[in-house]
Structures are given as structure tokens and as C-alpha cells.
Amino acid sequence: MGIESLYICGGAVWLNHSFRRLLGDKRNFNEMKMRLIFSLLLISILSCQQKRNLDLLQNPIYFDLGKTSEIVKSTQIKPEEYFVDSTTFGRKAFSKIEIFKYRVSTSDDDSVYGLIRFYSLRNKIWTLKNEFQYQKDGLTELDIEISDYNNDKYKDITFASAIAARGANEVRQLIIYDKKKDEIVFIKNSAYYPNLKYNSTLNCLDAMLFYGGVSTVFLEISGDSLLKFASVDVADGLSVSEYDKNGNEKLIYEDSIYKGEFPRFKNFKPIIEYGQEEYKLQL
């Protein structure tokens, strides 16, 4: 499953809503056929527009190296960008994180890679605890943001890894500080959930996905991955779904006449938008 799912799944949500309305209203088959054709064209266009960025992220390298990046060693290049922090991230003054962005240009390819190193202060010496390498798009800067994403009172980090859907979907890589192991956790699938933020109402994360409509997805951190447990989808109406640990969807509410314009929700049961009062239904 690649990041194309932002668009394909989004188009599927929009198409699913359309079918529900068409079948429920018993409208003619030609209208349903035209919506199907339009939806397939929309998915195709969005996929082609983002192909270059998506190709870079389709097969990302997410693994613990345990040694210096072979790419950097072999090329002996200087980083295009460099970030270091030992005063805010993790345990202040006892944790240090370095993030490098390298551009490797050859006659056949122009690739951008990142290297992340985490150190812990032991006996006044910075000791390397773990290290990760990843593949990045060549357009965005790191744009580091430091914040607590799991409400454990220790700061975590995100940085920009790509931009999709003409800039509406900001894709960021999430790195969590694990206070028990005193190391970092590279969240492998955070690129699937753009516009990621901490949700203090539900003590979780939520993401906002733009496509033919818009979805707010509610997520919890499970190991080195984000697990979706609910979503509010606005596409030709509004629907609320819950998901089990296997990703199976259960539709719990639907409103075919909802007319919100790109809303983001901070709760799904009851339905509450950010910055607005509670929506009409107590679920």
C-alpha cells in the first residue's frame, strides 16, 4: 500500500457516498453511470499529477541501520540540510537528535535521502542509541516541528517529507521519543496521514485528507505505526465510521444533506468540528 491511497481511497469514499444516495433515492441508472465515469477520471488525474512525489515515497526505506549510512559513506557528500537539537526534544539536555538531508546526484538518478541519529547522554558522553535512513522528495525543506504527539510530557518531532494534492496535503514524518527505552521510534506509515496533529479532546492523533472531498481520520500510536480507529468523511454528505484493529469498517452514522465546507473534526462521537459547537447528533 503506497501513499496513492490518499487519493484512491479518497475517491472511493466519494464514490461510495454517491452510490448510497443514488440507490437510496432510486434515481436512474444513467446518472449513476456518469458519476462512476467522473470518479474514475478524477482518481486517474490526481494520481498522475502526483506521480513524481508518490514514486519517491512508494518504496521508502524504513529500517534501523545501526551504523553510518552506506549512501553517505560511499559518496562522502555534505548534507543539503542539517538539524540538531538537545534542549527541547526527548529528555531535555539528555537527548540529542540529528537530522540530515542528502541529495545524491548521478548520471542516472537524482535522489534525496535523510539520515536520523539519536543520542543519549551517558557519563557526559553522547552515545548513539539508534539511527534511521529514509527516502525523501526533493522539493520540500525539512521544516522541523517539535511538539508532544502522544501526551507523555516529552517532545517529539515531525518534518516535511512531501506535499501532495497541490499543497493541501502536507505529508510529514513523525518521530516519537520512547521514554522507557530512551530511544526514538520512526513511525513507518505517518506519510499516509497528511496534516497530522495531536488531538487533546480524544488524546490521540488526527489527520485531514483532501481529495474530491475531505476526511478527518482519528489515529492511535501502536508500536512503530499509526492505527486508524475512526473517521468522519465529507463527500456528497457526511458519514462516520469506526474501524477495528484489522481495519474493518463499521458505518455508524450518515447524513446525506450535510453541506460543510472542508471541515476538520475533533470528535466523532459526538460529532464536533474544530472551532465550532457540537454538531446536531449525539452518537
Describe the structure using short key phrases.
283 residues; alpha+beta; 6-stranded antiparallel β-sheet; 5-stranded antiparallel β-sheet; 4 helices; globular; disordered N terminus; disordered C terminus
Tell me about this structure:
- The protein has 283 residues and is of the alpha+beta class.
- The protein contains four helices and 17 strands.
- The strands form four sheets. It has a six-stranded antiparallel sheet with strand order 10-11-12-13-14-15, covered by helices on one side.
- Strand 10 and strand 11 form a beta hairpin.
- Helix 1 runs antiparallel to helix 2.
- The protein is globular and about 60 Å long.
- The two termini are 32 Å apart.
- 34% of the residues are buried.
Say what oligomer this is. single chain
Largest sheet: 6 strands, antiparallel
Strand order within the widest beta sheet: 10-11-12-13-14-15
Class by SSE composition: alpha+beta
**Unreliable segments (pLDDT under 50, ≥5 consecutive)?**
1-8, 45-69, 278-283
Shape: globular
Percentage of residues in strands: 35-45%
Order of helices and strands: HHHEHEEEEEEEEEEEEEEEE
Straight-line N-to-C gap: 32 Å
Percentage of helical residues? 10-25%
Please render the helix and strand layout as text:
Layout lengths: L4 H21 L3 H21 L1 H8 L4 E2 L5 H6 L5 E5 L9 E11 L4 E13 L2 E12 L8 E3 L8 E9 L4 E10 L4 E4 L10 E3 L4 E7 L3 E9 L2 E10 L3 E6 L5 E7 L9 E4 L2 E3 L10
Antiparallel strand pairs: 1-5, 2-3, 3-4, 4-5, 6-7, 7-8, 8-9, 10-11, 11-12, 12-13, 13-14, 14-15, 16-17
Helix pairs in contact: 1-2
